[in-house]
């Protein structure tokens, strides 16, 4: 299913995006050496509830997971890159943490992810991983405009990731959002220009480049959810929800401190 929002629904999408961005910004500021992943999940629940939002994860039970997910945020550490199930683990100095959050507010979903190093300054290798996903995300957003094809976005994302020396896994990628979290169209993190669905105003997309340092192969934890690099290498993940407007792409999940006046 592909949903196209009308002009009256876009303000609600902006509100959902601002909520997700604000929660991730707050969590990033709170996460420190010794913070437990279950604390992060509890803080997320409290902030979603206080804002009148609804978690997209608690009852989430897709075919590829061992559902329902049962938590409010994905917390992926070091070699974990996607769908990290919160558990009793205290963050250590130098851990590379990815937080992925999707919330429904007033009937519209926004989805975003951020990766950062806890405590110590990021090593050059970790900084390169994170920067590559952020640059790829920016490239995908720059390619998004009415009349563009999904393949244009995928090609832009993949060119940055491959150009940085990383292998690209296309099993999981970006997707449409709207009244639900995961919708068509699928947006792979590599592709061919000029192919796929044609973008039009009112479409919401969650673009999410992610990479693993030395492999494109994933393995699944015994928890049935957490996806890790097959080699145990470090990973990173960046994501924004965008709205296609007549003028181009509007980033809905940009933190307040990064908004252009």
TrEMBL record:
<feature type="binding site">
    <location>
        <position position="111"/>
    </location>
    <ligand>
        <name>a divalent metal cation 1</name>
    </ligand>
</feature>
<feature type="binding site">
    <location>
        <position position="208"/>
    </location>
    <ligand>
        <name>a divalent metal cation 2</name>
    </ligand>
</feature>
<keyword id="KW-0378">Hydrolase</keyword>
<dbReference type="InterPro" id="IPR002467">
    <property type="entry name" value="Pept_M24A_MAP1"/>
</dbReference>
<comment type="similarity">
    <text>Belongs to the peptidase M24A family. Methionine aminopeptidase type 1 subfamily.</text>
</comment>
<dbReference type="GO" id="GO:0070006">
    <property type="term" value="F:metalloaminopeptidase activity"/>
</dbReference>
<comment type="function">
    <text>Removes the N-terminal methionine from nascent proteins. The N-terminal methionine is often cleaved when the second residue in the primary sequence is small and uncharged (Met-Ala-, Cys, Gly, Pro, Ser, Thr, or Val). Requires deformylation of the N(alpha)-formylated initiator methionine before it can be hydrolyzed.</text>
</comment>
<dbReference type="GO" id="GO:0005829">
    <property type="term" value="C:cytosol"/>
</dbReference>
<dbReference type="InterPro" id="IPR036005">
    <property type="entry name" value="Creatinase/aminopeptidase-like"/>
</dbReference>
<dbReference type="InterPro" id="IPR000994">
    <property type="entry name" value="Pept_M24"/>
</dbReference>
<dbReference type="GO" id="GO:0006508">
    <property type="term" value="P:proteolysis"/>
</dbReference>
<keyword id="KW-0031">Aminopeptidase</keyword>
<feature type="binding site">
    <location>
        <position position="175"/>
    </location>
    <ligand>
        <name>a divalent metal cation 2</name>
    </ligand>
</feature>
<feature type="binding site">
    <location>
        <position position="83"/>
    </location>
    <ligand>
        <name>substrate</name>
    </ligand>
</feature>
<feature type="binding site">
    <location>
        <position position="239"/>
    </location>
    <ligand>
        <name>a divalent metal cation 2</name>
    </ligand>
</feature>
<feature type="binding site">
    <location>
        <position position="239"/>
    </location>
    <ligand>
        <name>a divalent metal cation 1</name>
    </ligand>
</feature>
<feature type="binding site">
    <location>
        <position position="182"/>
    </location>
    <ligand>
        <name>substrate</name>
    </ligand>
</feature>
<dbReference type="GO" id="GO:0004239">
    <property type="term" value="F:initiator methionyl aminopeptidase activity"/>
</dbReference>
<feature type="binding site">
    <location>
        <position position="100"/>
    </location>
    <ligand>
        <name>a divalent metal cation 1</name>
    </ligand>
</feature>
<feature type="binding site">
    <location>
        <position position="111"/>
    </location>
    <ligand>
        <name>a divalent metal cation 2</name>
    </ligand>
</feature>
<comment type="subunit">
    <text>Monomer.</text>
</comment>
<protein>
    <recommendedName>
        <fullName>Methionine aminopeptidase</fullName>
        <ecNumber>3.4.11.18</ecNumber>
    </recommendedName>
</protein>
<dbReference type="GO" id="GO:0046872">
    <property type="term" value="F:metal ion binding"/>
</dbReference>
<dbReference type="InterPro" id="IPR001714">
    <property type="entry name" value="Pept_M24_MAP"/>
</dbReference>
<dbReference type="Pfam" id="PF00557">
    <property type="entry name" value="Peptidase_M24"/>
</dbReference>
<keyword id="KW-0479">Metal-binding</keyword>
<keyword id="KW-0645">Protease</keyword>
<feature type="domain" description="Peptidase M24">
    <location>
        <begin position="13"/>
        <end position="245"/>
    </location>
</feature>
